[in-house]
Design goal:
Length: 125
């Protein structure tokens, strides 16, 4: 599985990337903001994107909208990660195709399994 992490917090990207790579056997690429994330998504074609909701300049919802406009990224599954837990905007993001929200902090040992479970449930629908 190939995961693209789009998050402005370098520490979060490092921790999540390490957890996914070492504990989950996942190939990880990273982007520090929405603009870079859009380019990496198009180039790398990941199996799933972990997308931070709150980022400067281009927030997660705007990034998701832009992903959905591009034919080469519109079908890539997106899972939001946020410290806010359940947030008001989730209904809007679901309409744009977001699969779920994983709250920060997350359990490092379970992150890869959480992602796999979300993706498996989405395929059953």
């Amino acid at each position: 599985m190939r995961v693209l992490i789009i998050d402005d917090e370098e520490d979060f990207r490092a921790i999540a990337g390490t957890c996914l790579g070492i504990l989950g056997g996942v190939s990880v690429s990273e982007a520090e903001n929405g603009e870079v994330g859009l380019k990496k998504a198009e180039e790398d074609q990941p199996d799933v994107i972990l997308l931070d909701l709150i980022m400067p300049e281009m927030d997660g919802i705007t990034t998701l909208r832009e992903l959905r406009k591009n034919p080469s990224t519109q079908e890539i599954p997106v899972i939001f990660m946020t410290t806010k837990g359940m947030f008001d905007e989730f209904e809007e993001t679901k309409k744009l195709g977001a699969l779920a929200v994983i709250t920060k902090p997350f359990d490092p040992e379970k992150l890869a399994d959480q992602i796999r479970k979300i993706l498996a449930n989405a395929k059953q629908v």
